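tool=predict chain=A
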Amino acid sequence: MANALRQRLGALLSRPPAPASLHTTGAAVTKRFFASKAHAHDDAEETAKWRSITIAAYVLCIGMGAYILTHEEHGQIERTEYSYLHIRNKEFPWGPDGLFEYKHEDHEEH
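tool=predict ok
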Protein backbone atom coordinates (compact mmCIF):
# COMPACT_ATOMS: atom_id res chain seq x y z
CA MET A 1 0.00 0.00 0.00
CA ALA A 2 2.83 2.37 0.82
CA ASN A 3 4.37 1.68 -2.59
CA ALA A 4 1.13 2.54 -4.40
CA LEU A 5 0.86 5.77 -2.44
CA ARG A 6 4.45 6.73 -3.27
CA GLN A 7 3.87 6.04 -6.96
CA ARG A 8 0.75 8.24 -7.05
CA LEU A 9 2.39 11.05 -5.10
CA GLY A 10 5.50 10.79 -7.26
CA ALA A 11 3.41 11.12 -10.40
CA LEU A 12 1.68 14.20 -9.00
CA LEU A 13 4.91 15.83 -7.88
CA SER A 14 6.75 15.13 -11.13
CA ARG A 15 4.20 17.01 -13.26
CA PRO A 16 5.25 20.36 -14.67
CA PRO A 17 3.83 23.40 -12.88
CA ALA A 18 0.66 25.03 -14.17
CA PRO A 19 1.03 27.97 -16.55
CA ALA A 20 1.39 31.41 -15.00
CA SER A 21 -1.89 32.56 -16.57
CA LEU A 22 -3.80 30.28 -14.18
CA HIS A 23 -2.10 31.77 -11.13
CA THR A 24 -3.13 35.39 -11.68
CA THR A 25 -4.98 37.30 -9.00
CA GLY A 26 -8.52 38.64 -9.42
CA ALA A 27 -7.21 42.20 -9.84
CA ALA A 28 -5.02 41.23 -12.76
CA VAL A 29 -7.92 39.74 -14.71
CA THR A 30 -9.79 42.69 -16.19
CA LYS A 31 -10.95 41.40 -19.56
CA ARG A 32 -14.01 39.15 -19.72
CA PHE A 33 -14.75 37.04 -22.74
CA PHE A 34 -18.31 36.41 -23.90
CA ALA A 35 -19.52 34.53 -26.93
CA SER A 36 -21.24 37.61 -28.36
CA LYS A 37 -22.57 41.02 -27.47
CA ALA A 38 -26.10 40.13 -28.58
CA HIS A 39 -27.06 39.51 -24.96
CA ALA A 40 -27.32 43.25 -24.30
CA HIS A 41 -30.05 43.68 -26.93
CA ASP A 42 -31.99 40.61 -25.72
CA ASP A 43 -31.68 41.73 -22.11
CA ALA A 44 -33.02 45.19 -22.96
CA GLU A 45 -36.06 43.63 -24.65
CA GLU A 46 -36.69 41.33 -21.66
CA THR A 47 -36.38 44.25 -19.26
CA ALA A 48 -38.85 46.34 -21.26
CA LYS A 49 -41.28 43.41 -21.47
CA TRP A 50 -41.25 42.73 -17.73
CA ARG A 51 -41.46 46.44 -16.91
CA SER A 52 -44.64 46.64 -19.02
CA ILE A 53 -46.08 43.52 -17.35
CA THR A 54 -45.31 44.93 -13.89
CA ILE A 55 -46.94 48.29 -14.64
CA ALA A 56 -50.03 46.54 -16.04
CA ALA A 57 -50.24 44.35 -12.92
CA TYR A 58 -49.97 47.42 -10.66
CA VAL A 59 -52.76 49.18 -12.54
CA LEU A 60 -54.93 46.05 -12.43
CA CYS A 61 -54.39 45.56 -8.68
CA ILE A 62 -55.10 49.21 -7.88
CA GLY A 63 -58.23 49.14 -10.06
CA MET A 64 -59.53 45.94 -8.46
CA GLY A 65 -58.81 47.30 -4.99
CA ALA A 66 -60.69 50.52 -5.73
CA TYR A 67 -63.61 48.54 -7.18
CA ILE A 68 -63.82 46.26 -4.15
CA LEU A 69 -63.50 49.08 -1.63
CA THR A 70 -66.17 51.26 -3.27
CA HIS A 71 -68.76 48.47 -3.42
CA GLU A 72 -71.68 48.50 -1.02
CA GLU A 73 -71.10 46.71 2.22
CA HIS A 74 -73.23 43.68 2.76
CA GLY A 75 -75.39 43.43 5.86
CA GLN A 76 -74.66 41.13 8.73
CA ILE A 77 -75.54 37.50 8.27
CA GLU A 78 -78.50 36.59 10.43
CA ARG A 79 -77.57 33.93 12.93
CA THR A 80 -80.14 31.33 13.79
CA GLU A 81 -80.39 30.84 17.52
CA TYR A 82 -80.62 27.15 18.25
CA SER A 83 -81.61 25.81 21.65
CA TYR A 84 -78.45 23.74 21.99
CA LEU A 85 -76.04 26.65 21.49
CA HIS A 86 -74.35 28.36 24.45
CA ILE A 87 -75.48 25.83 27.06
CA ARG A 88 -73.51 26.54 30.24
CA ASN A 89 -73.60 23.82 32.90
CA LYS A 90 -70.88 25.49 34.91
CA GLU A 91 -69.58 29.08 35.13
CA PHE A 92 -66.31 29.91 33.46
CA PRO A 93 -63.51 30.83 35.90
CA TRP A 94 -63.30 34.29 34.27
CA GLY A 95 -67.01 35.09 34.48
CA PRO A 96 -70.27 34.39 32.65
CA ASP A 97 -68.91 35.36 29.21
CA GLY A 98 -66.85 33.10 27.00
CA LEU A 99 -63.46 34.23 25.82
CA PHE A 100 -64.69 35.11 22.33
CA GLU A 101 -68.20 36.33 23.04
CA TYR A 102 -69.71 39.76 23.53
CA LYS A 103 -70.05 40.91 27.12
CA HIS A 104 -73.44 40.61 28.76
CA GLU A 105 -74.91 43.92 29.82
CA ASP A 106 -75.93 42.56 33.22
CA HIS A 107 -72.39 41.39 33.98
CA GLU A 108 -70.45 43.71 36.28
CA GLU A 109 -66.68 43.78 36.60
CA HIS A 110 -65.48 43.16 40.18
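The CA atoms of residues 40 and 46 lie 10 Å apart. The mean pLDDT is 75.
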